[in-house]
C-alpha cells in the first residue's frame, strides 16, 4: 500500500472514530437527571423551544456543552448547567442522549413545498445555499464535521436558532457558515424550512 493510501486510511479511521461516542451511556443516563426537566428522560423534550437531544451526534452534543461552558455559546439556562461539567461528564451525557431514539414530528402541510425547496436547492435569486449541502438529504448531519442532525427537530426550536444566527445572537458556528446562509433568508423561508425539518425522517 503506498503512502497516499495509508494516509487516507488513517484519516478515514480518525473521522469514523471521531463520530463515535467516547463516553459511557449508562453513566450518562445517571448524570442526565439534571437534564430531564427540559430535555426529557429520553432526550425528547416536551417544550418545542427546547431541542430534542435523542439521536443527536455525540460530537455535536459535546461541542455545544463545551461552548456553553466556555462562553462561545450563551444561554441563561444552559450556560450555568454546563459550567460544572467535566469533559468526562460531557462524553457520558453525549453517549447517553445519542443512543436514544428520537420521536418523529409532523410538518405543517402548507409549509412543506417551500421548506423542501429551500432545504434541497436553496434560493438562487437571493444567493441562499441549500441546507442539505451540509446537513445531508435526510437531515442527518455530519458527525465528523460536527454538523448536527436536524431532521425531526422541533420546528419552533429550529426557527428560533435560525433567527438567532441571522441576528448574531448565536455566533458559535464555524467560520460564520450558518450566519452567512441565514443572513439572506426571509422569515417565511425560515419558518418553512423549520416545518419541513420537523417532519423529515
From TrEMBL:
Keyword Iron assigned: yes
Subcellular location(s) of the protein: Periplasm
Signal peptide positions (record): 1-21
GO cellular component, one term: periplasmic space
Any GO MF annotation of the entry: electron transfer activity
Name of a matching Pfam family: Cytochrom_C
InterPro entries: Cyt_c-like_dom, Cyt_c-like_dom_sf, Cytochrome_c4-like, Cytochrome_c_Oxidase_Subunit
PROSITE patterns linked: CYTC
Principal location listed in the UniProt entry: periplasm
Keywords: Electron transport, Heme, Iron, Metal-binding, Periplasm, Signal, Transport
Residues noted as binding heme c 2 in the record, renumbered to the chain: 131, 134-135, 178
Post-translational modification: Binds 2 heme c groups covalently per subunit.
Keyword Cell membrane set for record: no
Residues covered by the Cytochrome c domain: 23-101, 110-201
Binding annotation for heme c 1: 35, 38-39, 78
The protein, known as: Cytochrome c4
Amino acid at each position: 500500500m503506498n503512502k497516499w493510501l495509508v494516509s487516507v486510511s488513517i484519516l478515514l479511521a480518525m473521522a469514523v472514530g471521531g463520530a463515535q461516542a467516547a463516553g459511557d451511556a449508562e453513566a450518562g443516563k445517571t448524570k442526565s437527571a439534571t437534564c430531564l426537566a427540559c430535555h426529557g428522560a429520553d432526550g425528547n423534550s416536551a417544550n418545542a423551544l427546547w431541542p430534542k437531544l435523542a439521536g443527536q451526534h455525540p460530537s455535536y452534543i459535546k461541542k455545544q456543552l463545551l461552548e456553553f461552558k466556555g462562553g462561545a455559546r450563551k444561554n441563561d439556562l444552559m450556560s450555568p448547567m454546563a459550567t460544572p461539567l467535566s469533559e468526562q461528564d460531557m462524553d457520558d451525557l453525549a453517549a447517553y442522549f445519542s443512543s436514544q431514539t428520537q420521536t418523529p414530528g409532523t410538518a405543517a402541510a402548507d409549509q412543506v413545498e417551500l421548506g423542501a425547496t429551500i432545504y434541497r436547492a436553496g434560493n438562487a435569486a437571493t444567493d441562499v445555499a441549500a441546507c442539505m449541502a451540509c446537513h445531508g438529504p435526510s437531515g442527518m448531519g455530519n458527525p465528523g464535521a460536527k454538523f448536527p442532525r436536524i431532521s425531526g427537530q422541533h420546528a419552533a426550536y429550529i426557527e428560533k436558532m435560525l433567527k438567532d444566527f441571522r441576528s448574531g445572537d448565536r455566533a458559535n458556528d464555524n467560520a460564520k457558515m450558518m450566519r452567512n446562509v441565514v443572513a439572506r433568508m426571509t422569515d417565511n423561508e425560515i419558518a418553512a424550512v423549520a416545518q419541513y425539518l420537523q417532519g423529515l425522517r
